[in-house]
Amino acid sequence: MTLAALLGISFLGAASALGYEVSAKGVRVIDPWTPATLRLPIGNSVYLTIVNETGAPLHLTGVRTDVARESTLHHTLVDGGIARMLRINEVEIQPRETLKLEPQEMHVMLTELGAVLTEGRTFPLTLIFREIGEVTVEVMVERATAQQPRPRP
Ligand SMILES: [Cu+2]
Q1: In angstroms, what is the span from residue 84 Cα to ligand 1's centroid?
Q2: Which of 3, 17, 19, 89 is deepest in the core (most CB within 10 A)?
Q3: What is the maximal distance between C-alpha atoms in the chain?
């Protein structure tokens, strides 16, 4: 068994848009990423995809990372052409359902970051589920203008 398999990390190859995923405790977390920041940001968003492969509903109740003082779940609402962000306390994911956190949609909001996020670096992000506890993934910092993650080498 390889180290990657032991860690539950698989690399699907550069040809796939889904280059990185972590499988743990019955969930798959695919391509966690965030855009780079040019200076110390007030806030920044993290995007990722979660697949519930357990046989029961899961509830994502929180997120945590060392790079920001606060990490919360947000949803974006566009009302009269003005985008507003609302905090979400938890998100339910039904069995075999895929939850996508994407630009202009649901996202992880990092606030009071402690450092500039430079392209190419990674940092750990812990997802907290009520039913199965914590799952930690590595977030890739993409180009500042990115709208989606690039395949990881
Ligand atoms: Cu937000």
Answers
A1: 8
A2: 19
A3: 54
Ligand 1 centroid to Cα of residue 12, in Å, is: 30
Whether residue 96 lies inside any domain: the answer is yes
How would you label 47-78 residue by residue, b for 16+ Cβ within 10 Å and e otherwise?
bbbbbbebeeebebebbebebbeebbbbeeee
The letter for the amino acid at 61 is T
Q: How would you write the pLDDT of the chain (153 residues) with one tens digit per residue?
A: 445 544 445 444 333 444 799 999 999 999 999 999 988 888 999 999 999 999 999 999 999 999 999 999 999 998 888 989 999 999 999 999 999 999 999 999 999 999 999 999 999 999 999 999 999 999 999 999 999 888 776
Cα–ligand 1 centroid distance for 142 (angstroms): 18
- Asked, for residue 149, whether it belongs to a domain, the answer is no
Q: Which range marks the domain in which residue 111 is found?
A: 3-142
> Exposure of 2 by Cβ count < 10 A (0-12 exposed, 13-18 middle, 19+ buried)?
exposed
